Amino acid sequence: MSLAHRVPELGALELLIAVARHGSMGGAARELGISQPAASSRIRSVERLLGVSLFDRSPSGSRLTGEGALVTDWARRIMEAAEAFDAGAQALRDRRDSRLRVAASMTIAEYLLPGWLIALRAARPDTAVSLLAGNSGAVAARLLGGEADLGFVEGLAVPAGLDGTVIGGDRLVVVVAPTHAWARRTALTPEELAAAPLILREEGSGTRQVLDAALASYGGLATPLLELSSTTAVKASVVSGAGPSVLSELAVGEELASRRLTEVEVSGVSLRRDLRAVWPTGHRPSGPARELLSLTRSALGTGPSTG
Fold it and tell me: Has this prediction a pTM greater than 0.85?
């Protein structure tokens, strides 16, 4: 028979110590919030399990036997060890809940996460947050390598090895400098967009994934005019007149409003994409990661769906 079947459970040991301290079943029962008959029944179960009598019972109370005094002393040592175990586990939880490592693709990191993190700080002022920004492929690698607790990506699907949920949507837009010839166009055809050398984010970015898929049936993307690793660098190049680009509407709102960039419509092709929170398969977010996920859904007006 295993040790678990030979040693009383912690609750029974806690009751035993309480009875010894109060000198009565009734006092111990009141302390632990149970009925006196339940306390008496539990002590009798311990005595049957151990094969010894622990208390001499009388109308005036319950007094430890010699064997009961020894068992109670051992029980106190076990409870002290259990309390140390609980304190250690709580310390581990506190350490986990006092930090949050977030990995996010560039668009989300630059244009959405700052607001979310401000809200998280208000809810959890003691949580230290670190942010790792990169393309969607890099976010997946960080999560799979155990370097991040929660990730955010833009793209067509959840990266391999991860679970995720859609937290919102985004639209890619074609943008040019006001002096570019396309600025005077009503709309482009998908074939024209596919054939044009564009200023683009690097391969592995969510923007490239969506654009590649949208234009695959129109000959695919032409060789890029420039490949840059940040949205800010892409925008600066387009504003300077170097060429056209396709960027998230989240990233170009200010430039479009100030007329430093012009949006060009594309007919017959969808450039919409999902924004997702992601995490390693089988490890749903908990603690501050779960709270941040909830905040993103509230901010973007989405519910708890998974995908």
Answer: no
Nearest partner of 280 among 147, 166, 155, judged by Cα? 147
Nearest alpha-carbon partner for 134 in 109, 116, 159, 111: 109
Please tell me the distance from the alpha carbon of residue 125 to that of residue 201, in angstroms, as a whole number: 35
199 close to 242: Cβ distance less than 8 angstroms: yes
What secondary structure, in 3-state letters, does the chain show? CCHHHCCCCHHHHHHHHHHHHHCCHHHHHHHHCCCHHHHHHHHHHHHHHHCCCCEEEECCEEEECHHHHHHHHHHHHHHHHHHHHHHHHHHHHHHHHCEEEEEEEHHHHHHCHHHHHHHHHHHCCCCEEEEEEECHHHHHHHHHCCCCCEEEEEECCCCCCEEEEEEEEEEEEEEECCCCHHHHCCEECHHHHHHCCCEEECCCCHHHHHHHHHHHHHCCCCCCCEEECCHHHHHHHHHCCCCCEEEEHHHHHHHHHCCCCEEEEECCCCCEEEEEEEEECCCCCCHHHHHHHHHHHHHHCCCCCCC
Please tell me the distance from the alpha carbon of residue 205 to that of residue 202, in angstroms, as a whole number: 6
pLDDT tens figures, 237-290: 999 999 999 999 989 999 999 999 999 999 999 899 899 999 999 889 988 999
Non-local CB neighbours of 231 within 8 Å, separated by 6+ positions: 106, 107, 110, 201, 247, 248, 251
- Residues 68-114 pLDDT 10s: 999 999 999 999 888 888 776 665 565 555 789 999 998 899 889 98
Q: CA–CA separation, 3 vs 212, rounded Å?
A: 61
